[in-house]
Give the backbone structure.
Amino acid sequence: MIVGIIGGGQLARMLALAGQPLGLEFIFIDPGAGISAASTGQHWQGPYDDPELLRRLAATADVATYEFENVPPATIEYLARHMAVFPSVRALSCARDRLQEKSLFDRLGIPTVPHRPVNSRAELAEAVEALGLPAVLKTRRLGYDGKGQIVLRAPADIGTAWERLGGADLILEAFVEFQREVSIIAARNRAGEVRFYPLSENTHERGVLAFSRARPGDPAAAEACRYMGLLLDEFAYVGVLALELFDVGGRLLANEMAPRVHNSGHWTIEGSETSQFENHLRAVLGWPLGDTAPVGYTAMFNCVGYLPDPKAVMAIGGAHWHDYRKAVRPGRKVGHITARASDKDSLEPAISALKAVLPGHVFD
């Protein structure tokens, strides 16, 4: 069977690596040259909305999916008229727009941070008056990894923020003092079968995920799974869905969702019976989902802007190396490293050893 993927970055690459043992073949539509996924399937180079490439994909592949939210919804709408494509364009469109997303959380009764739409300098002033400072001004669309957002800490920041972001539709969100950031990842297949992964506890640096740790048995997981279940039902979702949340004094507030495999779930490759990548493929193909039970205790480090010495990494017991085959540049995710151990206490020495060979990050 052939799976078409819109996008050819590291997520597409890891999907293909998970699918190859299942006998699957892959086609990637991506405008870039030398894409991360190139060695794992066919790369059809061109814009994500190239009508000829989409026509060929619909005629060639058995199912289509996408690796990130910046895919134009019109691309998925076109494919859906000619072939099976998952997740749905409705889920994609909602996740692309922070205001739509927050409005959906409100409607479903999923707690989230206070927020206001901002479409003018006057509305920004009104939103600041309503929410107070500090607050976070964000573009409604196309922001990721900390891009397209500015923290307002004092009234003097308002004018500068408007000058930088005022050309786009915006949303102002209250700044919350959280104890930790967590995410829940689930898969739902065409038959409605659902599997949840253990909660991930995440650390970001400058808006980019630096470190994730699987937390099997975390007491917040039940609440996170309930919110996730509401979203899966709302969209009659097919595929892997991630929901990022703030833990504020034991209460979870939804931050954003991602209709795709997610960076905070990379640990599942070594740390679960079935990775998020394999389960996404199973889901969109209509196959039964695999077991998501954890295999020991696992943590994941992102390599952002550099790759360490692989020999130093692989000399550490329980460490697993993932090179995305991308050119190294500042702020770019170019690989990740997973540490796994049979018990919680044995994981700590591996984490400490990896911190020593991964300088420049804040993990604690």
The two ends are 44 Å apart (CA to CA). The longest helix spans residues 221-235.
